[in-house]
Amino acid sequence: MNPRIVEVRQNILRKNDVLARAFRERCTEAGVFVVSLVSSPGAGKTALLERTLSALHPVRRVAVVVGDLATECDAERLRKSGAPVRQITTGTLCHLDAQMVETAVLDWVSQRWTCCSSRMSGISSAPPATTSASTRERF
Amino acid sequence: MHELSIAVSLVELACEEASRRQFDRVQALHVRLGARSGIVKEALVFSFDVAASGTPIEGATLNVEDTPGTELELFALEVPE
Known about the structure:
The structure holds 2 protein chains of 2 kinds.
Chain A: E1 3-11, H1 14-30, E2 33-38, H2 45-56, E3 62-68, H3 73-79, E4 85-89, H4 98-110, E5 115-120, H5 128-138
Parallel strand pairs in A: 2-5, 3-4, 3-5
Helix pairs in contact in A: 1-4
Chain B: H1 3-20, E1 28-34, H2 41-52, E2 61-67, E3 72-80
Parallel strand pairs in B: 1-2
Antiparallel strand pairs in B: 1-3
Helix pairs in contact in B: 1-2
């Protein structure tokens, strides 16, 4: 018996793209400006955020969600600015998907924080260019 | 490693497509994986059996075709005639 091959042609991360699009629309409607900051480890994401938060907080309503595999080290550094900071720890996963980010910042969006910055650190298994592109879609 | 969560997404998508098309059994999945997708093929293949375990497509083979771009696509389902 010969098998039959049926074309599907669907993006595997379609569900994430749909969630990300809905989340982006929700942020736009609420007037929340979201920045996703991604780079290789050691490039200076946390340093840039430290400077940004100390320049903007408390004049602007800025908040940060940070993603890391295990520790709260970056969140602790950023909390010194006084701005709200949340940490997502992903365990063995090295990426954040749309659902994780949305869950972490949902109340900030509804409280209309004017700038909510989201980032992730320590991506070493994926080429930065691709990761930036896909992460833009995720957030 | 993010391939396990991608394998889970792949299995969910394949189960949805199979159910929508009323396929009782899926023998194989054909996936196109771009060189610039950021996904490690070996890790995806390794994760697939774990992700498929206990689902309607458990036991299906995963065939991965290497492509040059950023593709991450379930291209086709192979089902009994």
